[in-house]
Amino acid sequence: MQTSPTSQSDHLIQNLPPKEGGSEPSITPLSEAEAGALLSVERLEGSEKVCRRLREVGFCEKAEIRLLTRGGQMICSVCGTRLALSRKLAQNIWVKAMSH
User: Which residue of 48, 74, 85, 86 has the smallest Cβ count within 10 Å?
Assistant: First the structure.
């Protein structure tokens, strides 16, 4: 039985082993991140107005941020400035943990 090149390559891609050291860190809303974590902003969700304002204050895609505290307000270090966000607003910011 002959297999098409497309199905062979699909099969190879699906069976690739995970990268050394485990799998890629998953993305999660900022509201779910651990305090003290160094994070990379992966994407923003919400209305155009909300996303534009988040970018204006430094929450741009690929920006490095640190979540300082979790509580009623999420306090983050962004571009050398501390910013407080509501937990609801933090749900619009999707982040990935970075190595220290």
Answer: 48
| 31-68: b (≥16 Cβ within 10 Å) or e | bebeeebebbbbebeeeeeebeebeeebbeeebebbbe
d(CA 61, CA 45): 11
Residues 26 and 49: their CA atoms lie apart, in Å, by 26
Total Cβ atoms within 10 A of residue 85:
21
Comparing CA positions, the residue from 41, 66, 68 lying closest to residue 55 is 41
Alpha helices by DSSP H, listed for 22-96, are: 48-56, 87-90
pTM here?
A: 0.74
Please give the pLDDT value at position 71.
86
Write 47-50 long-range contacts (CB < 8 A, 24+): 50/89, 50/92
The pLDDT value given to residue 23: 58
Radius of gyration of the chain (CA): 18
Q: Backbone phi, then psi, for 12, in 5-degree steps?
A: -65, -40
